[in-house]
């Protein structure tokens, strides 16, 4: 893209993008008893407001996960969250029905207040709290060759990830490429191609992105196998390779299995 075309693209994107508002509910809580520990697991339901949401996200987090989030946010956003009350731990009574009920309400309010702060809403810390455990599990399964299990987890977490990163679509690309790899290795090429198309749309103006060339290479092969127009994709690939020769190297699968290795 020329500089002018890039500027026009981003102006169009800015005009079309609308902030997505999310509502957090702590739907339930249960006590988990392990061999050497006991804790409360909270079920968080995330719903998009303003319309019927058939893709609500359901995730589970321990109190210690909330505590970790608070500590990480304080390191960077201390001033921004100074008025946000985090429900502290008590010395006793943490597992009573009354205490768990109070904490459910307090944690719901805590998430609501955090999401209302723009900097925190877009922060890596909140994103990791809401999607990190599931993404680490999915990419771990992918590395182990457990494609069906990885795909199941990815399909559950990607709708939430997409809403949280609407302001930065490229953030979604590794997960979409992982879905492509899973579908492809499960011999479901049409669904793999559809996932790849979504990823390419996210990378529309990001030809220098590390996923761009490996993704195009995978899409050319899928298009050919499906009898689709692969010449256009091949042209884009060759043009990008000439423009960014240093990007040649990893295949799409080799790239995706490196995600979340150090997490």
Count of distinct strands: 3
First and last CA, distance: 35 Å
Query: Numbering strands along the chain, what is their spatial order in the largest sheet?
Result: 1-2-3
Rg of Cα set:
21 Å
Can I get a quick summary?
This protein has 263 residues and is mainly alpha-helical. Helix 7 runs antiparallel to helix 8. Helix content is 57%, strand content 11%.
What does this protein structure show overall?
It is built from 11 helices and 3 strands. It has 263 residues and is mainly α. α7 runs antiparallel to α8 (189-202). It is elongated, with a radius of gyration of 21 Å.
What are the key terms here?
263 residues; 57% helix; three-stranded antiparallel sheet; mainly alpha; 3 strands; 11 helices
List the helices and strands and how they pair.
Blueprint: H1 3-16, E1 22-33, E2 38-48, E3 57-62, H2 63-77, H3 97-115, H4 118-121, H5 124-143, H6 147-164, H7 173-185, H8 189-202, H9 212-226, H10 231-243, H11 252-256
Antiparallel strand pairs: 1-2, 2-3
């Amino acid at each position: 893209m020329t500089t002018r075309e890039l500027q026009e693209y981003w102006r169009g994107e800015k005009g079309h993008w609308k902030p997505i508002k999310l509502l957090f509910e702590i739907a339930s809580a249960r006590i988990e008893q392990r061999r050497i520990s006991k804790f409360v697991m909270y079920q968080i339901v995330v719903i998009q407001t303003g319309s019927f949401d058939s893709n609500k996200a359901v995730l589970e987090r321990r109190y210690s996960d909330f505590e970790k989030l608070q500590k990480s946010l304080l390191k960077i956003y201390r001033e921004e969250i100074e008025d946000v009350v985090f429900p502290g731990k008590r010395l006793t009574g943490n597992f009573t029905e009354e205490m768990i009920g109070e904490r459910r309400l307090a944690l719901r309010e805590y998430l609501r207040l955090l999401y209302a702060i723009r900097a925190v809403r877009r922060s890596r810390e909140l994103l990791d709290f809401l999607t990190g455990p599931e993404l680490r599990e999915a990419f771990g399964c992918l590395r182990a060759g457990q494609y069906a299990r990885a795909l199941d987890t990815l399909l559950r977490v990607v709708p939430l990830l997409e809403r949280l990163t609407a302001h930065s679509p490229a953030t979604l690309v590794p997960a979409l490429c992982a879905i492509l790899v899973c579908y492809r290795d499960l011999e479901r090429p049409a669904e793999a191609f559809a996932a790849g198309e979504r990823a390419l749309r996210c990378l529309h103006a990001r030809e220098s992105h590390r996923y761009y060339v490996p993704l195009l290479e995978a899409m050319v092969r899928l298009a050919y196998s499906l009898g689709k127009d692969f010449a256009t994709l091949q042209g884009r690939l060759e043009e990008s390779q000439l423009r960014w020769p240093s990007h040649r190297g990893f295949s799409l699968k080799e790239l995706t299995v490196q995600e979340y290795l150090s997490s």
